[in-house]
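User: Here's a chain of 146 residues. Predict its fold as tokens.
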Amino acid sequence: MTWESRDLPVLKAIVELADEGEDRIDRSFIEERTGMGHDEVQRALRALAHEEPPFFGYTDTPGYGRKEILMVFDVTGHARRTVGTWPTPESLADRIVAGLSAAADAESDEERRGWLKRTAAWFGGAGRDVLVDVASGVITKSTGLS
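Assistant: Prediction complete.
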């Protein structure tokens, strides 16, 4: 699987470098960060460059034939969500269910513990779609997309 062994590590490196303040990320920075060779990074960049919605903008070599990606920039929220640095509605829902379960485990009051366990079980099962919809609304509002 090239996604897990090549493309995802390259995308993670791009997001990390952008989060560290690199506005225009040279291909050599990605090679250094991932420890991958030039050709392998180029294959990953070409695979990632045409994703819709896009992961990033890029500059490539001019002309015809096999182009090389020289630099990436404008890393998108789609890239950040894909590598897990920004939450998705599903990941946020999972964190809420895990938090409710942990709160139930730590609760000393028997009635409250039972309520927390039932709530976690419902949101983790039949109520998952409701929780994902709520999480989606929260993410949309907090990012100014609504």
